[in-house]
Design goal:
single chain, 343 residues, mainly alpha, 76% helix, globular
């Protein structure tokens, strides 16, 4: 008889939905207050320093800055809900349009990075837990420690020097060589997707060669955290009675780890992976700067140097939204994957 899996309880969905809305409102409030606290006058950015007092007041009223703070916040939330994040003073375009252009590059980079981090980090964490306090465990912990302690920009520069300049195994800075830059239509702004859609195999290989090194660095960064947490989760479970029972019944170590322990640590492990993914989406600034990768991190960095408040707040809001969405999704998936939560 097939065992039925209990559906997601309405109370769980309601709690997750309310948590999502609350975190989103807090995120909007934080970004709104940051914009108000910034030592930059948004009116002067629009009218210029030489505008007359009459023009200044007219622009201020048109922008709604003469209204109470609560009213301004309600308008800010309403505009954000409609996709109006203001206009960038550095590019002259709506911020949402800029984010649509730059965010896919970060998404592509972070996605490949988290895939590498999961594919290698989870098995290494399982191996370290199985070989607890042995030389393999010590070696893997050292590898993880290096991932935490070595600056990512230094690793990026060394990687470019060794694998690009000396060995020529990977592409250099940027997403494509100049010869392919303007031969592929930016349909999705995802290089691998656009080159495949265009049927340009050479451009696809070129884009992949540019993507591999920065994605590997981000993957190593996420691997260090994922393997460490996987090791901790498995060590906590390996001493429990059901593991000893499985071993007494003759189950192999691989079956114990994969068939018995892994399902019980899947829920917290999903949360760790989701948060690692969000960190990569937010924390790729230095990597994008070193590799001239035109992603959201480089966009926000340039906006900071240009005192472009709308662009900075728009990028911050997008990254925060990624955190909120991934956190909520990990809660729901964790509930679905953990039978103890439904008992």
């Amino acid at each position: 008889m097939r065992k039925r899996v209990a559906p997601v309880a309405p109370a769980t969905l309601l709690r997750s939905g309310l948590s999502f809305v609350l975190m989103l409102l807090v995120l909007l409030l934080v970004t709104f207050l940051i914009g108000k606290a910034a030592p930059i006058d948004p009116v002067l950015q629009v009218v210029g320093d030489r505008a007359s007092p009459e023009a200044y007041q007219e622009a201020r009223q048109r922008m709604g800055l003469d209204r109470p703070i609560a009213t301004q916040f309600v308008r800010y939330v309403s505009d954000a809900a409609q996709g109006d994040l203001g206009r960038s003073t550095s590019t002259g375009r709506p911020v949402l349009e800029d984010l649509r252009q730059y965010f896919p590059a970060t998404l592509e980079l972070a996605t490949l990075g988290i895939v590498l981090g999961v594919v290698f980090g989870v098995p290494l964490g399982m191996l370290a837990a199985h070989q607890h306090n042995r030389w393999i465990d010590q070696l893997l912990r050292l590898v993880g420690l290096l991932g935490y302690s070595v600056p990512v920009f230094w690793l990026g520069l060394v990687g470019l020097l060794v694998f690009y300049a000396r060995l020529g195994w990977v592409g250099g800075p940027g997403r494509l060589d100049d010869v392919y830059q303007y031969t592929v239509d930016s349909w999705s702004n995802l290089v691998l997707v656009d080159t495949l859609r265009a049927g340009n195999a050479e451009a696809f290989r070129n884009g992949l060669s540019h993507l591999l090194l920065p994605a590997a660095l981000l993957g190593y960064f996420s691997l260090a955290y994922i393997s460490r947490m996987t090791r901790a989760f498995f060590l906590e479970e390996l001493g429990k009675e059901y593991v000893m029972t499985a071993r007494v019944k003759g189950a192999s170590e691989l079956r114990v780890l994969v068939g018995h322990v892994l399902p019980n640590v899947a829920a917290p492990l999903v949360t760790v992976i989701a948060l690692s993914y969000a960190v990569l989406l937010e924390g790729a600034v230095l990597t994008e700067t070193v590799f001239s990768w035109p992603g959201i991190g480089l966009y926000v960095t340039n906006a900071l140097f240009s005192a472009d408040v709308s662009a900075v707040l728009g990028g911050t809001l997008l990254v925060g939204l990624c955190f909120v969405v991934l956190n909520t999704a990990s809660d729901v998936f964790g509930y679905l994957m953990d039978p103890r939560a439904r008992s």
